[in-house]
Design a protein that fits this description.
The structure is a single chain. This protein is α+β, with helices and mostly antiparallel strands and 136 residues long. The protein is 40% helix and 29% strand. The protein has a three-stranded antiparallel beta sheet with strand order 1-5-2. A two-stranded antiparallel sheet has the order 3-4.
Length: 136
């Protein structure tokens, strides 16, 4: 690795230490379906978001619930505090497209129709709300 790349990689690693996130790669759900659930919880307080995901009928909500719990655990590990009294919220959630499996479905008269089985990557960032009376 060159010197410039090493310096920028070290800067990126230092910036990641102050962020609290969890990633879920290669989810076999279309990004469009996952974004519907992600939009429901974007910017919400963590406990409220967990209850929304728990009682949602969407299939993607179970995966996002597990991812949110992982992000909370990452926050607790890095800050060495409990999430119960921390006033956590979802600062950002990103759903990106991943690899697409391409398949053929048989069709009439010797033709074949293309099927695209989509998947996605989800990144969820958690942060604590800092109130003005706590600051000096």
């Amino acid at each position: 690795m060159g010197a410039r790349k090493k310096i920028s990689a070290d800067e990126r690693k230092e910036a990641q230490k102050t962020l609290y996130f969890a990633k879920l790669n290669g989810v076999p759900t279309s990004p469009r379906k996952m974004r519907l659930v992600a939009d429901m919880i974007r910017g919400m307080e963590v406990n409220k978001a967990l209850s929304v995901l728990k009682f949602s009928s969407k299939e993607a909500s179970g995966r996002l619930e597990k991812l949110l719990k992982s992000a909370i655990a990452n926050w607790e590990t890095k800050t060495e505090q409990k999430a119960d009294n921390a006033n956590l919220y979802i600062s950002s959630i990103c759903v990106d497209s991943a690899t697409m499996m391409k398949r053929l479905r048989t069709a009439p008269q010797g033709r074949g129709y293309r099927i695209r089985k989509r998947s996605n990557h989800v990144t969820l960032y958690v942060d604590s709300k800092i109130t003005n009376d706590n600051q000096i």
